[in-house]
Structures are given as C-alpha cells and as structure tokens.
Amino acid sequence: MSETVVIRSDILIAGAGAAGIAAAIAAAREGKDVVLLERYGMVGGGMTATYVRPFLGTVGNPNIGNEIEERVLKYTSFMTPVESAKAVLAEMLQEAGVRVYLQTQVIRVEKEGRSITKIVASCQGNPLYFTADAYLDTTGDGNLSALAGAEFAIGREGDGLVQPVSTMFTIEGIEPDYGLLCEHEEHYTVLPNGKEYLDLCHKACESGELPPSINIVRLYATGKKGERMVNATQQNKVDPLSPEQLFPAEYALREQIVSVVRFLKKNIPGFENIRVNGSAVTAGIRESRRIIGDYELKVEDLFEGKRFDDAVVEDAHFCIDIHNPDGAGQSETEGCPYEELPYEIPYRSLCPKGFDNLLVAGRSISGDHRAHASYRVMRICMAMGHAAGLAAVQMSDKKCGTREVNVREIQKVLRINGEGAEA
Q1: What are 17-37's pLDDT values in tens digits?
Q2: Hey, what's the torsion of the CAs at 326, 328, 331, 337, to 10 degrees?
Q3: For a FRET experiment, which of 15, 60, 188, 341 has its CA 20 to 30 Å from that of 86?
C-alpha cells in the first residue's frame, strides 16, 4: 500500500469564487503559502462559471476587489467580460504564487475539539489530504463548514424556501440602432411600436408565453453592439444542496432560455434575428447555507446602516434583492427591491460558532435570509474575502485562533476606522 502524502500549507481555502480568490491573493501577497481548492475546471465562480457579468454592490473601503475589477475590464476591448475574467483571475493567482487545485472538492473534514486538523478532498478519483494553520470556507454553499459539523440555516423563515436558481446567457443579432436595456423592475421603456417593454413581459407571464416564474426579462449591455446579457430564467423551489434536484432544474432552465428568446424575437422590434451566443456552464445559486457565526447580521442592521467596532467591510451597499422563492418577480415588493443604508459587516459574522481555526467569507457568512439578499453580491463578497485572507495570515503567523485575531490590524490595512457601536 502506498504511503499517504499530506499536502501542507499555511492557509487552505476551499472555493475559488469572488471571496476565495480575494482571500487567496491577499494572504499570498503577505508571504503565506496558500492552497486554493476549486471543484470546477476554472476559477472565478460567478464571474466565470455562472456568467454573472455585472460587478454588483459597492463597498467604501479599498480592497483587492477593486484591482480584480479593473484588470478584468482592461481586456474587454478584445474579450468578453467572462473570458477576460477567466484569464485575469488565473493570472493574478499565478502572480501571487497561490497553489491552485482545480477539479478538487472537499469530501471529508477531520477535527479535534474546536480545530480542523485535516481536509480530505477528491480530484478525478484521487484522494488528496491537506493540513494548514487556518482554513477558509469560501465555497458559497458552506460545504467545508457543513462537513466539519458547523451549524447552519437555510432559507426564509416559515417555509425554508431559498431564492430561485437561474442560468444567465447572452444574445447577439440585435439591430444596432436599438438600444433597449432593462436593468431592474421599474426600468420602463416605450418601444418603437408604442408598446411598453415591462408591460409586455408581465402580460407574457400571465398568458403563458413566458413561464410562470418569469415576469421580467432583464437586458444588460455587454460593451458589444447588438449584444445583451439576459437575466430572466428562474426555477423555484429547488434545493441547491440536493443532487436529485439539480439536473431537473438545469433542464428546466435551458427550456426557459428557449422561451425567453422566442418571446424577444416575436415581440421586440430589432430582436427578430437574435440568437444565443453563450450561457453559464452551470446554474447560478443565489442562496443556500448560511453558517451560524458569533454574530448574525440582520436586515434591521442594514436598514439602520449599523456600525461595528470589529467591522471588516465598510459601507457595503446593495438593495434587499430577494428574487421570489415561490413565484415571479421580487419576494417583498412589486417593483424595485427595498433599499438599505450603507452598512458594515463585522468580523464576528465570519467566525463560525464552535471553531477556532475556521473562517467563512462570501454569501454563506452568518446573517439572516433578508440581509443575505444584499451582501451576497460580488463586490461585497470580494471585500469579505480580502478581510478573511488577512485574518488567516495572523492566525498562521501568531498560531492563534479566530477570536485572537487583532481586527484593528485588518482595519488599518483596509482603511476602516472601526469606531462603530458595539453590537
């Protein structure tokens, strides 16, 4: 029998999406040996695999997300944003010296007491074993934390439903003189034939021309004439953690793409000759596990614009964007989602209860269903990832636990004043 080889690093990060990439680069630039595991054959998560082109949300403090966005957009004169992200993110990880393992998924976690001691992963049927000083879960679904036995919550109160899954895609062949955009639920536009675009969408949903889960077909500019990114498909009541439900959802979403394209070709002047020229390689998941941490960020904190002494993200801003888990449109409003005030995200929300060497960053941090609908987007996740990467550096350097991290040092690097009210 061959001897088991354990791969050692200072920091191990599971999940190479927006938060994981920011965390890995931040830690590696501080001289740390970083291993980054990714279950797909590319890095980028929402930026690449699920085709999310807009960099949504804003944050007040500078972070690696600003550099990532700037470098991705730099190449869009000769690449689509998705293709640019594939190249740029790989380039940045390579420059930083991050050891990236693609096609590698965590399958088991070993621990002693409150500490993770070993990660077991699988790559093409080969078991791989990893150890580190600090572990970061940036999988989006909280997979590493769940395998380690962390507490978590799923869905909204009452019925436990999560936001729908969607497949983003792009279309080309729009007449160059037609500049139709639809970026949100109240983006009203009168078409050349005198009809109002959103009204057409709503009526098509009611009549069955569009599926019952689609009453708005959002169209975003891509930077290329005659092309639009389409955010419309959504499949409700899907448990994104259930392998039995993922393929039926994938099938339904692909069928919805056909329905949406037919609707546009039939009803929208200038769209008669459109065709799909690209789509996500997998369904986009908006919501799954939320890992229970030392502080649960609540929607009331967002409406208040709450400040925290241990803030690691400053002035996060994005609406309470809850795609209806049980139908079309928004969950709580008929038009645009509710707006919050710029808020802070505390370090405590990144610290899973019951663990001393594990942090979470991205959409699976500790928060309620409604707050999650705001902080789940790309720019905010990258800011969280940067902060988590810096915390992991301290954990490795000082051989300390998550709660012994000096948050003030992180705040200095990220230019956060940390003078908020104690929660």
Answers
A1: 999 999 999 999 999 999 999
A2: 160
A3: 60
**Token digits of residue 189:** 């536009």
Q: For 280-302, give one letter per residue: b (16+ CB within 10 A) or e.
A: beebbbbbbbbbbbbbbbebebb
The span from the CA of 231 to the CA of 251, in Å, is 17
Within 13 Å of residue 265, how many CA atoms lie on the same side as its CB? 14
Task: Please determine, for residue 418, whether its predicted confidence score (pLDDT) is greater than 80.
Answer: no
With CA atoms as reference, report the closest residue to 312 among 363, 352, 348.
348
In terms of Cα–Cα distance, which of 417, 323, 316, 406 is closest to 367?
316
Nearest by Cα to 313 from 389, 377, 382, 371: 382
Global confidence as pTM: 0.96
Cβ-contact 385, 23 below 8 angstroms: yes
User: Tens digits of per-residue pLDDT, 349-406?
Assistant: 999 999 999 999 999 999 999 999 999 999 999 999 999 999 999 999 999 999 999 9
- Asked whether the beta carbons of 26 and 389 are under 8 A apart, the reply is yes
